[in-house]
UniProtKB/TrEMBL annotation:
The organism of origin for this protein: Streptomyces africanus
Stated name of the protein: Diguanylate cyclase (GGDEF)-like protein/PAS domain S-box-containing protein
Chain ranges of the GGDEF domain: 307-441
Residue ranges constituting the PAC domain according to the UniProt record: 225-277
Domain EAL stretches: 450-712
Domain PAS: 151-221
Length: 714
């Protein structure tokens, strides 16, 4: 197959070409550079697959690092150039359209794995060389009795010509011989080296078993041992080595000498430390990143009995506005300053600050008394953000919302703790921001339930989990049923029947309210047609009207009018059978563009009701410009009428609203009627229709038919 110009294969080959040009000059291969490039191409392909894989596999990176050693790229400079090339070009040529920040993090982890694989392969190769040298030394020692002069020459050639450091000492640790490589590693003369004793070379980073193994060897209890060990040079710098010490015995098998083979791993160790730092720290702020934070959090949560933890999850308030208005460069400078301030807040033992990404930071404290310490830490963070931050000559005020989780170790996983902190942080943000809140298990449960409902909403409509109940609209003058309000319900598989207050806000937030509202409208209009067909021969019943609620999202949807027309035409019902209810708050300050769809529907004959009237603090004069024919009075004005005597102020307000509505040729419907006294008082005040539990609770469509039929025949 021929790859398309500038396709993935072309970009992969470009990466392999750049890689081969960088590394070829420091290799020991007999291949030409084009041949070397063909050898690197499958390694580049493995790196590309590992970069884009669904699950990150560090073994791929380690395998590529080991393959470099197999390709004779054993010079440390070859690894350094390889890592520089991967860091600069792997994401550019092989990253595709993925999340760049995530790809860069993966690239850093791949580099770390490659360095580890390279180091392991080189170490195994060196160990093989060391073993060969040790065997040669042992063979030479055995042949001494037979041909001392020939063996001495052979051993001296190996001893002096080896690239690794070699030293021989007696069993008391006195140094007898060293080669040039060892002298260069320590930076001392042979005379100085021979004045040293092996036991003087202790270092604070020595592994606990290092000197135990040494003692066992000089006592003849083991033949050799291998450790990673650090040595101090005379200038104070540290030399890190892979150290192999072997025991040499005399012809009778008694221990006689110790032979040390040292490989200098200082540069490789520093490189590994640098890669580890880059893999666990945020490139912009220098703070520990998500990976490092989770390691620390997991360790804190796994601490012993009596230990506790406290976590502050910080999100900056309004950071997106700064990014959008001043640019991402200014936003980055702001984040760096915020990171510095946060770092100064977590200086006590057991405290750390990390950046999770974007403008999200976390602060962790551990110990036996985190209940007090985490509150103090959150307070320090809030105080640290008080002073404005200067960016490009502008003084920017920065505020943040913090969610706090505190508790004993060993009860929750890191993911559960961070989820609780995230939920709590958004609770603080919803309360106005610039504050911190403590985690509340009940609030967490509600948030998790909301999230579950949100994710289940799209498929719930497809599975037919929604149904509609109808609450009668009764004429206050004669008590007849004039129609019903359609109220959607969700029959959830786990939570049972949910009212609209549980899922309508979620549907509006996700945009599902448009298809859900369209479904409710069509089902309700079809039901209205069935009612009219059933009641066609009953003049006393009259045509029943269906009231359907419209959300603010539906009002702004461009297909509202056409969807309504199509539904009315498909069902074959007249527009006067439909009333669309719109909340007063949705129309406060509405411009002509928002009112235009409602005006078109009103001109067609669809009634428009202004729902929850009296709660939106709107100007009553606006009623004249709204295309409404019905006011639905909010129940807060009529609740006092359930008792006798009613609040005279409420009576006057309702009387005034009814008088105003009738003067504008608007009908008045009252919600929440629960007693006969309340219904009678509203009738006296001139209200037209009412609904509430006094008449009937929302129920199936058959109940409304029975109520209407009873009114007609009663």
């Amino acid at each position: 197959m021929i790859a398309e110009p500038d396709g993935p294969e072309d970009r992969l080959r470009r990466f392999a070409t750049i890689w081969s040009r960088a590394v070829f000059p420091v290799t020991s291969t007999s291949s030409t550079r084009p041949e070397f490039e063909e050898h690197l191409l499958p390694l580049a392909r493995r790196l590309s697959r590992a970069l884009l894989a669904r699950a990150f596999d560090a073994d791929e990176g380690r395998a590529v690092g080991a393959a470099l050693v197999d390709a004779h790229c054993t010079d440390p400079e070859a690894l350094s150039r390889t890592l520089d090339c991967v860091d600069a070009y792997l994401v550019l040529y092989c990253g595709g359209d993925g999340d760049q920040e995530d790809l860069r993090a993966r690239s850093a982890r791949l580099q770390h794995a490659m360095a580890a694989g390279f180091a392991q392969a080189l170490r195994e190769r060196t160990l093989a060389e060391q073993e060969a040298i040790a065997q040669a030394a042992l063979r030479a020692q055995g042949v001494v009795a037979q041909a001392l002069h020939a063996t001495e020459a052979r051993f001296r050639a190996v001893f002096e010509g080896a690239a690794i450091g070699i030293g021989m000492a007696d069993l008391d640790g006195n140094i007898l011989q060293v080669n040039g490589a060892l002298l260069r590693m320590f930076g001392v003369s042979e005379q100085t080296m021979r004045t040293r004793n092996v036991r003087e070379w202790t270092h604070p980073d020595d592994a606990p078993q290092t000197w135990r193994l040494y003692d066992e060897l000089v006592r003849g209890e083991r033949e050799h041992y291998h450790v990673e060990k650090a040595f101090y040079r005379p200038d104070g710098t540290v030399l890190w080595t892979n150290l192999t010490v072997s025991l040499l015995r005399d012809a009778d098998g008694s221990p006689q000498y110790q032979l040390a083979l040292m490989e200098d791993t200082t540069e490789r160790r520093l490189l590994n430390l640098r890669l580890r730092y880059e893999a666990t720290h945020d490139a912009l702020t220098g703070l520990p990143n998500r990976t490092f934070f989770f390691e620390r959090l997991e360790k804190a949560l796994g601490a012993g009995k009596g230990q506790r933890f406290g976590l502050c999850y910080l999100d900056l308030d309004g950071f997106k506005t700064i990014n959008d208005s001043l640019g991402h460069a200014a936003g980055d400078r702001l984040l760096v300053e915020v990171a510095d301030r946060l770092q100064s807040c977590a200086t006590a033992p057991g405290e750390m600050v990390a950046r999770l990404g974007g403008d999200e930071f976390v602060a962790l404290t551990t110990g036996p008394d985190t209940q007090r310490e985490v509150d103090e830490l959150a307070t320090r963070i809030m105080n640290a953000l008080l002073a404005p931050i200067s960016v490009d000559g502008r003084e920017l005020t920065v505020r943040g919302s913090i969610g706090i989780v505190e508790g004993p170790a060993g009860e929750r996983s890191p993911a559960e703790v961070l989820r609780s902190a995230d939920i709590t942080m958004y609770r603080a943000k919803s309360a106005g921001g610039n504050r911190f809140e403590l985690a509340d298990p009940e609030a967490d449960a509600r948030a998790i339930t909301r999230h579950g409902l949100t994710t289940a909403l799209p498929t719930a409509l497809e599975r037919g989990e929604f149904f509609i109940e109808y609450q009668p609209l009764v004429h206050l003058g004669d008590g007849s049923v004039r129609g019903a309000e359609a109220l959607v319900r969700w029959l959830h598989p786990q939570h049972g029947v949910l009212g609209p207050d549980r899922f309508i806000p979620l549907a509006e937030h996700t945009g599902l309210i448009v298809p859900l509202g369209r479904w409710v409208l069509e089902q309700s209009v079809r039901q209205a047609r069935e009612w009219r067909e059933l009641h066609g021969g009953l003049e006393a019943v009259g045509p029943l009207r269906i009231n359907v609620n419209l959300s603010p999202c539906q009002l702004t949807h461009p297909g509202l009018v056409q969807d309504t027309v199509d539904i009315l035409e498909r069902t074959g019902i007249e527009p006067d059978a439909l009333c669309l209810e719109v909340t007063e708050s949705a129309l406060i300050g509405a411009d002509d563009d928002l009112l235009k769809p409602l005006r078109r529907l009103a001109e067609m004959g669809v009634d428009i009701a202004l729902d929850d009237f009296g709660t939106g603090y709107s100007n009553l004069a606006n009623l004249r410009r709204l295309p409404v024919s019905i006011l639905k009075l909010d129940r807060s004005f009529t609740q006092s009428m359930q008792q006798f005597p009613a609040d005279p102020v409420d009576l006057k307000i309702v009387e005034g609203i009814v008088s105003l509505a009738h003067s504008l040729d608007l009908a008045v419907t009252v919600e929440g009627v629960e007693t006969g006294a309340q219904a009678e008082q509203l009738r006296i005040l001139g209200c037209d229709t009412a609904q509430g539990w006094y008449y009937a609770r929302p129920g199936p469509p058959d109940r409304l038919h029975e109520l209407a039929l009873a009114d007609a025949t009663g």
